[in-house]
Amino acid sequence: MEKNGLNTIEDFLTNDNFISLVFEQTSLLKKYWNDYFKLNPGKESLANEAKNILLNELDAPGMSSAEQEKLKEKILCTIRR
Amino acid sequence: MKEQNENRMDSMTADTEVSQLLSFLQSGDINAFSRLYDLHVNMLFNYGCRLTTDKELLKDCIHDVFIKIYNKRQDLGEISNFKSYLFISLKNKLCDESRKRINFSDLAVEEYNPVALENVENDYINFEMESISNEKVKHLLSQLPPRQKEALTLYYIEEKKYEDICLIMDMNYQSVRNLIHRGILKLRSIAV
Protein backbone atom coordinates (compact mmCIF):
# COMPACT_ATOMS: atom_id res chain seq x y z
CA MET A 1 0.00 0.00 0.00
CA GLU A 2 1.48 3.32 -0.98
CA LYS A 3 1.72 6.06 1.62
CA ASN A 4 -0.96 8.74 1.25
CA GLY A 5 -2.64 6.54 -1.34
CA LEU A 6 -6.32 5.88 -1.84
CA ASN A 7 -6.76 2.48 -0.24
CA THR A 8 -10.23 2.49 1.31
CA ILE A 9 -13.69 3.79 0.47
CA GLU A 10 -13.19 6.44 3.16
CA ASP A 11 -10.02 7.62 1.41
CA PHE A 12 -12.08 8.30 -1.70
CA LEU A 13 -14.97 9.81 0.28
CA THR A 14 -12.59 12.33 1.84
CA ASN A 15 -10.54 13.18 -1.22
CA ASP A 16 -11.35 16.71 -2.40
CA ASN A 17 -10.64 16.01 -6.05
CA PHE A 18 -12.73 12.88 -6.00
CA ILE A 19 -15.69 14.64 -4.38
CA SER A 20 -15.41 17.37 -6.99
CA LEU A 21 -15.28 14.78 -9.78
CA VAL A 22 -18.49 13.13 -8.60
CA PHE A 23 -20.44 16.38 -8.53
CA GLU A 24 -18.83 18.51 -11.16
CA GLN A 25 -17.45 16.35 -13.96
CA THR A 26 -15.31 19.06 -15.46
CA SER A 27 -12.94 18.00 -18.23
CA LEU A 28 -9.87 18.72 -16.09
CA LEU A 29 -11.16 16.50 -13.28
CA LYS A 30 -12.17 13.77 -15.68
CA LYS A 31 -8.75 13.80 -17.29
CA TYR A 32 -7.03 13.67 -13.92
CA TRP A 33 -9.06 10.69 -12.78
CA ASN A 34 -8.88 8.84 -16.10
CA ASP A 35 -5.11 9.04 -15.83
CA TYR A 36 -5.26 7.90 -12.23
CA PHE A 37 -7.38 4.85 -13.04
CA LYS A 38 -5.19 3.96 -15.98
CA LEU A 39 -2.24 3.86 -13.60
CA ASN A 40 -4.24 2.21 -10.79
CA PRO A 41 -6.79 -0.08 -12.44
CA GLY A 42 -7.38 -1.91 -9.14
CA LYS A 43 -8.79 1.25 -7.52
CA GLU A 44 -11.75 1.69 -9.80
CA SER A 45 -14.17 -0.55 -7.93
CA LEU A 46 -13.45 1.25 -4.63
CA ALA A 47 -14.01 4.55 -6.39
CA ASN A 48 -17.30 3.33 -7.84
CA GLU A 49 -18.50 2.30 -4.40
CA ALA A 50 -17.58 5.69 -2.99
CA LYS A 51 -19.32 7.42 -5.88
CA ASN A 52 -22.44 5.37 -5.32
CA ILE A 53 -22.47 6.38 -1.66
CA LEU A 54 -22.10 10.07 -2.49
CA LEU A 55 -24.79 10.03 -5.17
CA ASN A 56 -27.33 7.52 -3.91
CA GLU A 57 -26.95 6.57 -0.29
CA LEU A 58 -26.92 9.86 1.55
CA ASP A 59 -30.66 10.44 1.30
CA ALA A 60 -31.33 7.63 3.78
CA PRO A 61 -32.99 8.64 7.04
CA GLY A 62 -30.23 9.94 9.29
CA MET A 63 -31.24 12.89 11.39
CA SER A 64 -34.81 13.04 12.68
CA SER A 65 -36.74 16.17 11.78
CA ALA A 66 -36.72 17.15 15.46
CA GLU A 67 -32.91 16.94 15.51
CA GLN A 68 -32.72 18.90 12.27
CA GLU A 69 -34.91 21.66 13.68
CA LYS A 70 -32.95 21.80 16.92
CA LEU A 71 -29.66 22.20 15.10
CA LYS A 72 -31.17 24.80 12.78
CA GLU A 73 -32.37 26.84 15.76
CA LYS A 74 -28.87 26.69 17.22
CA ILE A 75 -27.35 27.88 13.94
CA LEU A 76 -29.84 30.74 13.56
CA CYS A 77 -29.23 31.67 17.17
CA THR A 78 -25.47 31.88 16.55
CA ILE A 79 -26.11 34.04 13.49
CA ARG A 80 -28.31 36.48 15.41
CA ARG A 81 -25.73 36.93 18.16
CA MET B 1 -34.70 5.33 -19.92
CA LYS B 2 -37.75 7.44 -19.26
CA GLU B 3 -37.11 7.22 -15.55
CA GLN B 4 -33.51 8.28 -16.05
CA ASN B 5 -34.65 11.35 -17.93
CA GLU B 6 -37.05 12.22 -15.20
CA ASN B 7 -34.32 11.86 -12.62
CA ARG B 8 -32.13 14.14 -14.64
CA MET B 9 -34.94 16.67 -14.82
CA ASP B 10 -35.36 16.41 -11.06
CA SER B 11 -31.72 17.04 -10.41
CA MET B 12 -31.65 19.93 -12.87
CA THR B 13 -34.60 21.51 -11.12
CA ALA B 14 -32.89 20.96 -7.77
CA ASP B 15 -29.66 22.57 -9.03
CA THR B 16 -31.61 25.55 -10.32
CA GLU B 17 -33.34 25.94 -6.98
CA VAL B 18 -30.02 25.79 -5.13
CA SER B 19 -28.42 28.43 -7.33
CA GLN B 20 -31.42 30.69 -6.87
CA LEU B 21 -31.31 30.19 -3.12
CA LEU B 22 -27.60 30.97 -3.12
CA SER B 23 -28.15 34.27 -4.89
CA PHE B 24 -30.96 35.17 -2.47
CA LEU B 25 -28.67 34.30 0.41
CA GLN B 26 -25.97 36.55 -1.02
CA SER B 27 -28.32 39.45 -0.57
CA GLY B 28 -28.89 38.37 3.03
CA ASP B 29 -32.15 36.38 2.73
CA ILE B 30 -32.35 34.27 5.89
CA ASN B 31 -35.24 32.18 4.53
CA ALA B 32 -33.08 31.11 1.62
CA PHE B 33 -30.41 30.12 4.13
CA SER B 34 -32.94 28.12 6.09
CA ARG B 35 -34.14 26.33 2.96
CA LEU B 36 -30.56 25.50 1.93
CA TYR B 37 -30.08 23.98 5.36
CA ASP B 38 -33.28 21.91 5.06
CA LEU B 39 -32.24 20.61 1.65
CA HIS B 40 -28.77 19.49 2.67
CA VAL B 41 -28.52 18.79 6.39
CA ASN B 42 -29.59 15.13 6.31
CA MET B 43 -27.27 14.37 3.43
CA LEU B 44 -24.37 16.04 5.27
CA PHE B 45 -25.20 14.16 8.46
CA ASN B 46 -25.18 10.81 6.63
CA TYR B 47 -21.90 11.72 4.97
CA GLY B 48 -20.38 12.68 8.33
CA CYS B 49 -21.54 9.39 9.84
CA ARG B 50 -19.22 7.59 7.42
CA LEU B 51 -16.28 9.55 8.83
CA THR B 52 -16.97 9.68 12.56
CA THR B 53 -19.04 7.83 15.15
CA ASP B 54 -19.18 10.91 17.36
CA LYS B 55 -22.63 12.32 16.56
CA GLU B 56 -22.27 15.36 18.81
CA LEU B 57 -18.96 16.31 17.23
CA LEU B 58 -20.58 15.83 13.84
CA LYS B 59 -23.48 18.15 14.67
CA ASP B 60 -21.06 20.79 16.00
CA CYS B 61 -19.14 20.61 12.75
CA ILE B 62 -22.29 20.88 10.62
CA HIS B 63 -23.21 23.92 12.73
CA ASP B 64 -19.84 25.52 11.97
CA VAL B 65 -20.08 24.72 8.25
CA PHE B 66 -23.41 26.54 7.97
CA ILE B 67 -22.18 29.46 10.06
CA LYS B 68 -19.23 29.81 7.72
CA ILE B 69 -21.56 29.73 4.71
CA TYR B 70 -23.65 32.50 6.22
CA ASN B 71 -20.68 34.64 7.21
CA LYS B 72 -19.01 34.19 3.85
CA ARG B 73 -22.20 34.56 1.84
CA GLN B 74 -20.68 37.34 -0.27
CA ASP B 75 -18.16 34.85 -1.67
CA LEU B 76 -20.70 32.16 -2.54
CA GLY B 77 -20.61 33.12 -6.20
CA GLU B 78 -17.15 31.58 -6.42
CA ILE B 79 -18.37 28.12 -5.51
CA SER B 80 -18.67 25.94 -8.58
CA ASN B 81 -20.76 23.21 -6.95
CA PHE B 82 -22.57 23.65 -3.66
CA LYS B 83 -22.74 19.96 -2.74
CA SER B 84 -19.06 19.28 -3.18
CA TYR B 85 -18.34 22.52 -1.31
CA LEU B 86 -20.47 21.29 1.60
CA PHE B 87 -18.90 17.84 1.73
CA ILE B 88 -15.35 19.15 1.50
CA SER B 89 -16.03 21.82 4.14
CA LEU B 90 -17.53 19.31 6.55
CA LYS B 91 -14.71 16.85 5.99
CA ASN B 92 -12.10 19.57 6.66
CA LYS B 93 -13.95 20.73 9.76
CA LEU B 94 -14.15 17.17 11.11
CA CYS B 95 -10.42 16.75 10.50
CA ASP B 96 -9.56 20.01 12.25
CA GLU B 97 -11.75 19.26 15.23
CA SER B 98 -10.53 15.66 15.55
CA ARG B 99 -6.96 16.90 15.46
CA LYS B 100 -7.66 19.50 18.14
CA ARG B 101 -9.33 16.94 20.35
CA ILE B 102 -6.67 14.31 19.74
CA ASN B 103 -4.10 16.70 21.23
CA PHE B 104 -5.83 16.32 24.57
CA SER B 105 -6.07 12.56 24.43
CA ASP B 106 -3.53 9.84 25.15
CA LEU B 107 -3.13 8.83 21.55
CA ALA B 108 0.27 9.73 20.14
CA VAL B 109 0.04 12.14 17.24
CA GLU B 110 2.01 9.73 15.06
CA GLU B 111 -0.58 7.02 15.56
CA TYR B 112 -3.38 9.24 14.43
CA ASN B 113 -3.95 9.19 10.72
CA PRO B 114 -6.19 12.04 9.72
CA VAL B 115 -7.91 11.83 6.37
CA ALA B 116 -7.15 14.26 3.55
CA LEU B 117 -6.03 17.65 4.85
CA GLU B 118 -6.20 19.70 1.71
CA ASN B 119 -7.58 23.17 1.95
CA VAL B 120 -10.98 23.47 0.32
CA GLU B 121 -10.49 26.98 -0.99
CA ASN B 122 -7.15 26.05 -2.48
CA ASP B 123 -8.74 23.29 -4.49
CA TYR B 124 -11.60 25.45 -5.60
CA ILE B 125 -9.22 28.07 -6.86
CA ASN B 126 -7.35 25.34 -8.76
CA PHE B 127 -10.42 24.17 -10.56
CA GLU B 128 -11.72 27.62 -11.18
CA MET B 129 -8.77 27.94 -13.52
CA GLU B 130 -10.37 25.49 -15.86
CA SER B 131 -13.22 27.83 -16.69
CA ILE B 132 -10.79 30.44 -17.99
CA SER B 133 -9.60 29.85 -21.51
CA ASN B 134 -5.95 29.05 -22.15
CA GLU B 135 -5.36 32.24 -24.13
CA LYS B 136 -6.59 34.44 -21.35
CA VAL B 137 -4.50 32.45 -18.90
CA LYS B 138 -1.38 32.93 -21.00
CA HIS B 139 -1.98 36.66 -21.17
CA LEU B 140 -2.47 36.85 -17.41
CA LEU B 141 0.50 34.59 -16.77
CA SER B 142 2.78 37.05 -18.55
CA GLN B 143 2.03 39.55 -15.77
CA LEU B 144 3.32 37.30 -12.99
CA PRO B 145 6.81 37.18 -11.48
CA PRO B 146 8.99 34.77 -13.51
CA ARG B 147 9.09 31.86 -11.02
CA GLN B 148 5.32 31.93 -10.46
CA LYS B 149 4.76 32.13 -14.18
CA GLU B 150 7.04 29.19 -14.81
CA ALA B 151 5.39 27.02 -12.16
CA LEU B 152 1.88 27.81 -13.33
CA THR B 153 2.78 27.27 -16.98
CA LEU B 154 4.25 23.87 -16.18
CA TYR B 155 1.24 22.92 -14.11
CA TYR B 156 -1.68 24.25 -16.13
CA ILE B 157 -0.47 24.62 -19.68
CA GLU B 158 1.96 21.73 -19.88
CA GLU B 159 0.00 19.71 -17.33
CA LYS B 160 3.09 18.49 -15.52
CA LYS B 161 2.76 16.77 -12.16
CA TYR B 162 4.02 18.48 -9.00
CA GLU B 163 6.81 15.88 -8.77
CA ASP B 164 8.03 16.78 -12.27
CA ILE B 165 7.84 20.51 -11.57
CA CYS B 166 9.98 19.94 -8.45
CA LEU B 167 12.67 18.38 -10.66
CA ILE B 168 12.44 20.97 -13.42
CA MET B 169 12.53 23.92 -11.07
CA ASP B 170 14.83 22.28 -8.54
CA MET B 171 12.51 22.99 -5.63
CA ASN B 172 10.92 20.82 -3.00
CA TYR B 173 7.30 19.73 -3.13
CA GLN B 174 5.95 22.19 -0.58
CA SER B 175 7.73 25.15 -2.14
CA VAL B 176 6.27 24.28 -5.53
CA ARG B 177 2.80 24.02 -4.03
CA ASN B 178 3.24 27.37 -2.28
CA LEU B 179 4.56 28.99 -5.43
CA ILE B 180 1.61 27.75 -7.46
CA HIS B 181 -0.82 28.78 -4.75
CA ARG B 182 0.64 32.29 -4.54
CA GLY B 183 0.62 32.48 -8.33
CA ILE B 184 -3.06 31.62 -8.47
CA LEU B 185 -3.94 34.19 -5.83
CA LYS B 186 -1.96 36.80 -7.74
CA LEU B 187 -3.62 35.73 -10.96
CA ARG B 188 -7.04 36.08 -9.42
CA SER B 189 -6.28 39.57 -8.17
CA ILE B 190 -5.17 40.59 -11.66
CA ALA B 191 -8.09 38.87 -13.35
CA VAL B 192 -10.87 40.53 -11.38
Description:
The complex is a heterodimer of chains A (81) and B (192). With 81 residues, chain A is mainly alpha-helical. Chain A contains five helices and no strands. Chain A has helices spanning 9-13, 16-24, 27-39, 44-57, 65-80. The longest helix of chain A has 16 residues, at 65-80. The mean pLDDT of chain A is 89. Chain B is mostly helical and 192 residues long. Chain B folds into two domains: 2-117, Orthogonal Bundle (Rna Polymerase Sigma Factor, Chain: A); 132-191, Arc Repressor Mutant, subunit A, CATH 1.10.10. Helices cover 72% and strands 0% of the residues of chain B. In chain B, helix 2 (30-49) crosses helix 4 (82-102), helix 7 (146-157) crosses helix 9 and helix 8 crosses helix 9. Chain B is globular and about 50 Å long. The N and C termini of chain B lie far apart (43 Å). The interface between A and B is medium-sized, with 34 and 34 residues.
User: What structural class results from the helix and strand content of chain B?
Assistant: mainly alpha
Characterize the overall form of chain A: elongated
Q: How many beta-strand runs of chain B?
A: 0
**Would you state the CATH class of the largest domain in chain B?**
Mainly Alpha
N-to-C span of chain A: 49 Å
Task: Specify the number of helices of chain A.
Answer: 5
Arithmetic mean of pLDDT of chain A = 89
Low-confidence stretches of chain B: 1-8, 106-118
Q: If you compute it from the alpha carbons, what radius of gyration of chain B comes out, rounded to the nearest whole angstrom?
A: 20 Å
Helix content of chain B: over 70%
Provide the CATH architecture of the largest domain in chain B: Orthogonal Bundle
Helicity range of the residues of chain A? over 70%
Write down the secondary-structure element order of chain A. Answer: HHHHH
Taking the alpha carbons of the first and last residues of chain B, their distance comes to 43 Å
Quaternary class: heterodimer
Largest interface: A-B, 34 and 34 residues
Structural class based on helices, strands and sheet pairing of chain A:
mainly alpha
CATH topology term of the largest domain in chain B: Rna Polymerase Sigma Factor, Chain: A
